[in-house]
């Protein structure tokens, strides 16, 4: 494939295996053999320059001029196309090299191909050893095409006879296939040696790339036949080739723009989907996300006959925190609880804020004993929290968990604890909603029996630890206030 960029065949532009000092001995040997064989044949053909006719020199000059104009005009566009290319890069230069292989002597075909590669180097900007190998592959394909055409013995001029003319068409088709196949397979074999874990067909490019290259070779065949009758042929074709190159550049730009828009749209949709399922205050799932992902996890475990434990968590006296220190303090406590849940739970578990100070956790493949132990660890962690925040007057205050010992700040700062209800599927329901209702019922029982504890659904009570004294004092104070109000 003329103009292939080997490093981009399957996205290998950043792989160090193409660095000269890291290449395998087998790769170095293959490169050396290919380059040596092509160089030997080229030098042998160049020795025949003295026998080239004036008309061939005229055709050669026209081809060189066309190559120069083509690559100079499309240089910026070609650099951009190469940067955007994710596979074999087709640069349309084979229209000139294949025409030279058909209409020029071998020595002039070698010079035309070398000149084309010299002009390509500032555009391609590849490492010298990679550029030399690519150039050898392209020159080798050109020489094989020249050999097929000139060994056939058929005249490139129209004879008026059906069979000879059809035979010439067949020869040109074979030469084009040999040119295309030799370059493509040579690059593929080299990449296979460098990266043996990949398959050869991954290096051969897409169908669209190969169809474009074969079309370019077809244009080169027509140009070659035209050059045999008039040397001016390349000058007539240079403008259409530049125009096609420009159209390809515009198409590449448009495709890159559309792909960029598509990626941005996908990222936006993913961000919107995440925002729609995430509680911004805690970083956990919100009610919608909890219902969707929790139900999905519960259904998967049900199909696999695995137990699922549901935890219903509620912060004790959370309204008192908001009333005493203000909503910013309450928000800080919620955020810290969200952090604790993310740290204490496994990656496959689901945790969400189910409104207000209530949280729900769905534990995959977790039975009652393990689920109760996890609930207790969560309760202890919440009861040992220390949250630095501000009160209503913007003074710094540290709210502490009720499981922590008293300090000089007084018992009122020990304001954080949680009651947790535990339910298990399938013992407490066949779906997440039923298990969640059972966990809520166990949570209410924990509230009624002193708070700051874990209670299991279905009448089984697990109080770990017993209600703390300060919690009982608060309960009595609330009941007294309610009585006075009545």
Automatic annotation (TrEMBL):
Superkingdom to which the source organism belongs: Bacteria
PROSITE patterns: GGDEF
Name of a matching Pfam family: GGDEF
Keyword Transmembrane helix tagged: yes
Record domain GGDEF: where: 306-459
Membrane spanning stretches: 27-45, 57-75, 95-119, 131-149, 169-191, 235-252
Coiled-coil region list: 248-278
Gene3D superfamilies hit by this protein: 3.30.70.270
CDD domains assigned to the protein according to its UniProt record, in alphabetical order: GGDEF
UniProt protein name: Diguanylate cyclase (GGDEF)-like protein
Biological classification of the source: Bacteria, Bacillati, Actinomycetota, Actinomycetes, Pseudonocardiales
